[in-house]
Amino acid sequence: MTHVPSVRVAASIAPILRLGVLAVAGATVVARDARMDGPMAATEAQVRRAAERSDVVAAVRTLYKRVGLDPTKVRPSSEALLRRVRKGEALPRINSAVDVCNWCSVETQLPYGLYDLARVEGDVEARLGRTGEAYAGIRKDVVHLEDRLVLADMAGPFGNPTSDSARTMVTDGTTGLLFVVFCPTPLGEAALEAALALTEERAVAFTGGRPCLRVLR
Prior knowledge:
4-stranded antiparallel sheet, alpha+beta, globular, Phenylalanyl-tRNA Synthetase, Chain B, domain 3, 217 residues
């Protein structure tokens, strides 16, 4: 049985951050799904043609500034993807689930996290990182978390809107997916709900999983 954690936002950051949470069970993750090639390329082309969604980019940057981070030095994952695509590069292809996550993030311009449900221990809280907290990042680097926005379970922090941990990363063997959308509160519920709906549609289409939780927090 897939463990589906409850997710909450700590009171200290609730005024500035909302989360969209989508859990998907029974997923099949493959190294590359060729069905995504054309649609992802079309999104990349659209992103290059269209004006930057300055309201969203500015809101995400302000979210970082509200917790004391310089978003030009510690970039939100969504802005890093956006900059990559607007320079003419393709979205990175990691596996079918991560590809869905990055595809949705660059289109909505909101930071996303994606986690293996089997590796999440207990319930989840979004909060600020505490003194000395850090984790091994997916690219083997150490990610320092003090005073940063983090997701934490019973074992400690495992994700944030810039760089996620190796502990909960999604691999080809993952069957349970936890997508988290980090949304600045000024953008409103409609933007977050639209991002979740897009994510659910693509997760079902390209992993074959079934949604078992979809909530706004």
